[in-house]
Amino acid sequence: MTLIVVVDDEPQIRRTLATNLRARGFDVELADSGEVALTLIRSCKPDLVLLDLGLPGIDGVDVIREVRLTSDVPIVVLSVRDLEPDKVRALDAGADDYVTKPFGIDELLARVRAALRRRVGVPELRVVDGERLRLDLDHKVATIDMVPVHLTRIEWRIVEVLVSNAGRLVSQRDLLQQVWGPEYGTETNYLRVYLTQVRRKLELDPARPRHFITETGMGYRFVP
Known about the structure:
The structure is a single chain. By secondary structure, this protein is α/β, with parallel strands linked by helices. It has two domains: 3-119, Rossmann fold, CATH 3.40.50.2300; 127-222, Winged helix-like DNA-binding domain superfamily/Winged helix DNA-binding domain (Arc Repressor Mutant, subunit A, Orthogonal Bundle), CATH 1.10.10.10. The chain contains eight helices and twelve strands. The strands form three sheets. It has a five-stranded parallel sheet, sandwiched between helices. Strands 6-7-8-9 form a four-stranded antiparallel sheet, with no helix packed on it. Strand 7 and strand 8 form a beta hairpin. Helix 2 runs parallel beside helix 3 (60-68) and helix 6 (153-164) packs across helix 7 (172-180). The two termini are 28 Å apart. It is found in: Cytoplasm. Its main location: cytoplasm.
């Protein structure tokens, strides 16, 4: 059975998450502090960790750093902290995803499933064949309603990185470095410009994108 460790100092949130996760067949262990969380993670070897940042004792970001010394277990952060620096710190420390409180349980479960799929090594997506949009990464062919769409080299690289990580949050830093090189990391204006162009070409309604989603302050996500 898939084991999830839930770490939150609020009893009501722990109970709510435990009830919903167990109802969907997950095994759940609960922790109310960073110290307890680290002990559980080391002893139970969970498949995923749901982690609040504002913990008594060891802060959530320090928990992430400590876990990453010995484990690649997926960590999904749950936090009321919605400022960009907090999100960047957590992602740079090694978190896989970041969900801001309050959140919908269905959205959270979708993030959990996506993180677990990545853990078991689901092959990266190379062809998107949707109702209107078709992307073939290997042959660099994009069509909308079977009409070819021209993408520049940089646009294709952005699309390739996001599609290959379908469903997964790709941080701004990771996307910049994978597209432009390791010396990049803060030039977020590049991403805004190029993602706008990609949406104009590949989204039915660029102002309300369905596929190329911005996670404010964190990065971008491709939804097939």
